[in-house]
User: What shape does this take?
Amino acid sequence: MGAFIAGTYYGTWGGIPLGITEQGYELDQQTYAELIKGDNFGDGVQDLVYRAADYSLRAVFEEWAFSSSPLAGGATPAGGVTTGPRATANENYPSFFPWNTLGNFGNSGVVGRIGSYFAQSIVLTPALGVPAAVLGNLFAEAVTFALCVLQEGQTTTFTFSTRHRKVGLRFRVLPYLPSAGNPYGTWFDKSNDVAG
Assistant: This one.
């Protein structure tokens, strides 16, 4: 039999629980390269030069809420401490429109802001005892995406009906330098934390 991996992950956005999701979380990876071609092989690729990558994280959230707090329109800058009132424990309004600091959903916010200033960490932790939490697997430990912000071009759909309201989001995962003197960007990091 194969080594099958499954199991629930619990997510937080800047330390705030994100609640349950429809199908868990999905991490997308896209790599870039400069293609090396020569007339001797026509349009055939002979080699390539690695040119970094992009990551995005997506999920359909089944729990979410709005808040009248000013924090609802602008998350605390990365590394900061989130203070002030929250409408519920599953307050993810800043995640799906971080640009508005007025606390009014539907306001454009200030054009020209830098995404990393509003980025927050998303931490995914596997539930205790599930196969995904077995050490040795790729994402057996908690995974921290330190800088996440609503991905550009994201279409967020809100349902106005008597049906259960879910919201799907895609986050751009931004790289950072984990330590002084380290020239390599890091998109995410793992720890040995397991939710129990």
Notes: Residues 67-92 have pLDDT under 50 and may be disordered. The chain has one domain: 9-190. The CA atoms of residues 161 and 190 lie 40 Å apart. The chain is about 5% helix and 30% strand.
